[in-house]
Amino acid sequence: MPILTAEERLGTVVGGRFSLESILGTGGTSVVYAARHTFTQRSIALKILKPEHSAHREFVARFLREARIASTLVHPNVVAILDMGTEDGDTYLAMELLSGESLAAKLNREGPLTIDHTLALLRPLMEALAQAHARGIVHRDIKPDNVLVGDRGDGTTRAILLDFGMAKTAEVAWGHMTQSGILVGTPFYMSPEQAEGATDIDAATDVWSMGVTLYRCLSGELPFFANAPSALLLAIARGDHVPLATRRPELPAAVSAWVERALELDRTRRYRDMGEMLAALDRALAGQTPAPIEAVADGAESEPPSPPRAATRSMVAVAGIVGLLALALVAWRMTPHEPSAATEPAPPAPAPIVARAEEPIVAPTPPASTSVAVTATPREASPPIIADERAAPATTAGTATRRTGPRRARIEAPSAPSSEATPPAPTAAPTRSTSGLASEW
Questions:
Q1: What is the pLDDT of residues 132-164, one digit of tens each?
Q2: 89 alpha-carbon distance from chain centroid
Q3: Fewer Cβ within 10 Å of end Cβ, the chain: N or C?
């Protein structure tokens, strides 16, 4: 039996009771139809997996299991899941059909929204997500296209979150390569861990996506944008974006900081879930800055926050450069150079200190005296001159002898061996080279 296209399926019946009437939308893994229940005549939205995904048992089982869990979440701002099943090779999910427009269409038409308007639409969604996160349910695909601004027929306009039943398996096409190697979807709202292909996705991913949605609503722009998927994923992974406070300086600083905290690259530095993000919102509206980053687990010791990935990469690069420079410095110092090219030449030897006496002291018949050795550190060691005329004990190179007696004492520094003791010529002050690699670092 040939596989029908989405258009060719119009007018057919799925599951023995859902008559397909029109196409509402097409995604990477499914097609959404406006359908009618053949017995109750109620209009519904029917999501049907594409044939290539319906053929995978594991994928279908996970889709139905997670859709069943999501169907237990009842909230005025979450689309209701009415039915699900598999039949004749089709895997489907029946949801209530709502009237209205997507938040994406609204933003494209109206541009940036005020804080009050933004929170009126998104805060109820955040409250619904807080309930979901408390029960271990993660949406994973929060974006303006999955938010419907409309009503349920009661005349009340509200934002309603769609796709809870498909959210946990959306990564199969959202941000992952298909068999043809083409990235499916538009991952502007994808968290860094999703962009990196992490498998342990948690509530922090919904926090990131909500932060991007808030940024878009308040500024009219996407924080991360690129024309090519690879460039976009790289920008997300590096956190390259203009801060919200720069785009909208008139916003309260606490509110801008609240949004930026949701866009932390390291998920352990974001709000842990939507409940924590809501609590921070109340503080931001009261003018308080976001609370300090706490440990991820309740009661756990808080670890020093790790730097963002971009900063970590920069630190690694700088460390590598410094290491290479250090090796170059060691090699340079081991190579003979002229004194003017030395990086840090040894300081010049101090000039000899001589206490002049009224008459010169001549060896070998001095009066009784006491010798005290005083250690010195000249630039070059030479044999000392012993001033003790009674007994000239063997001394160590680099020492001077102090004599006490009836005559004035003097302290002599060792000098070069010669018939006469002459002070060494002063060494010229060295100059610091500014041309070599070693001298610059």
A1: 999 888 998 899 999 999 988 778 889 999 887
A2: 44
A3: N
Dihedral (Cα; 218, 222, 224, 230), 10-degree rounding: 160
Q: Are 315 and 292 in contact (CB under 8 A)?
A: no
Backbone angles phi, psi at 95, to 5 degrees: -130, 165
Which carries the bigger pLDDT value, residue 28 or residue 4?
4
Q: Read out DSSP for 165-217? A: TTGGGGGGTSSSB-TTS-B-S-GGG--HHHHTT-S---HHHHHHHHHHHHHHH
Q: How many CA atoms lie within 13 A of 226 on its CB side?
A: 16
pTM for the model: 0.62
The candidate with the shortest Cα–Cα distance to 160, out of 109, 125, 194, is 125
The active-site residue out of 141, 206, 273, 388 is: 141
Beta-carbon contacts of residue 279 (< 8 Å; ≥ 6 apart)? none
d(CA 316, CA 23): 51
pLDDT at 165: 56
Residue corresponding to tokens 């866009």: 263
Closest CA to 23 of 11, 14, 41, 15: 11
Largest CA distance in the chain: 135
Query: How many residues can be counted in the chain?
Result: 441
**What does the pLDDT look like over 384-430, one tens digit per residue?**
544 444 444 444 444 444 444 444 444 444 444 444 445 555 544 44
Q: Give the pairing type, strands 18-26 and 30-37.
A: antiparallel
Q: Phi first, then psi: give them for residue 24, nearest 5 degrees.
A: -90, -30
**Could you give all domains of the chain from N- to C-terminal order, each with its CATH number?**
13-97 (3.30.200.20), 98-294 (1.10.510.10)
Nearest-angstrom CA–CA distance, 287 and 274: 20
- Does 141 participate in catalysis according to the annotation? yes
Which of 387-395's residues contact partners 24+ apart within 8 Å by CB, and which partners? Answer: 387/361, 387/363, 387/412, 389/363, 389/364, 389/365, 390/366, 392/363
How does residue 228 score in pLDDT terms, banded at 50, 70 and 90? confident
Q: Is 95 helix (H, G, I), strand (E, B) or coil?
A: strand
29 within 8 A of 53, measured Cβ to Cβ = yes
Phi-psi region of 156 (alpha: psi -120 to 50; beta: other; left: phi over 0): beta
